[in-house]
Amino acid sequence: MAKNADEKVEKKLTDYVTLVSSDGFEFQVLRSAACTSGLIKRMLDPNNNFAESRTNRCTFENINGVILEKVCEYFYYNEKYRHVKDAPDPDIPLELCLELLMAADYLNT
C-alpha cells in the first residue's frame, strides 16, 4: 500500500513550479532549476508535507519581484554552466548586489 502512496506523490510532481514575489509577480521555473535553492528544494519535497509540495507554488513575502527575477535567472545560469570550467560571469547590477546576497542567504543558494 505504501508503494501506491509513493506513486501518487510522484504523479503530483510537475516539471515547473511557480515562485511568487512579495509584490505579486509570478515566475514559472523548471523544478530542477528552482531546486538549486536548498530552501525551495525542501519546500517542494513531498516527504516534508509542506503545502508548497502540493500546490507547486512558493510565495516569498520578503523578496520583491526584481530580486526574485534575478534569482530565477541565476537558477537557469547555474543549470546551464554547472559543469563548465570557465563560465562567464552572470550579469548582476551593482545596485542589486546587497539584496541578492540577502536573498541567496535566505534561499540557501
Structural features, described:
The chain has 109 residues and is mainly α. It has six helices and three strands, in the order αββαααβαα. Strands 2-1-3 form a three-stranded mixed β-sheet. Residues 6-10 have low confidence and may be disordered.
Labels describing this entry:
three-stranded mixed sheet; single chain; 109 residues; mainly alpha; 6 helices
Proportion of beta-strand residues: 5-15%
Instruction: Give the helix tally.
Output: 6
Principal-axes geometry comes out as globular
Question: What fraction, in percent, of the residue positions are helical?
Answer: 40-55%
Give helix and strand order, one letter per element, not per position: HEEHHHEHH
Number of strands: 3
Model regions low in confidence, pLDDT < 50 over at least 5 residues: 6-10
Output mean pLDDT: 91
Distance between the termini: 36 Å
What does the main sheet amount to?
Answer: 3 strands, mixed
Judged by helices, strands and strand pairing, the structural class is mainly alpha
Strand order of the largest sheet: 2-1-3
Task: Indicate the radius of gyration in whole angstroms.
Answer: 15 Å
Topology:
Blueprint: H1 2-12, E1 16-20, E2 26-30, H2 31-34, H3 38-44, H4 51-55, E3 57-59, H5 65-81, H6 97-107
Parallel strand pairs: 1-3
Antiparallel strand pairs: 1-2
Helix pairs in contact: 5-6
Summarize the entry for a quick read.
The chain has six helices and three strands, in the order H-E-E-H-H-H-E-H-H. It is mostly helical and 109 residues long.
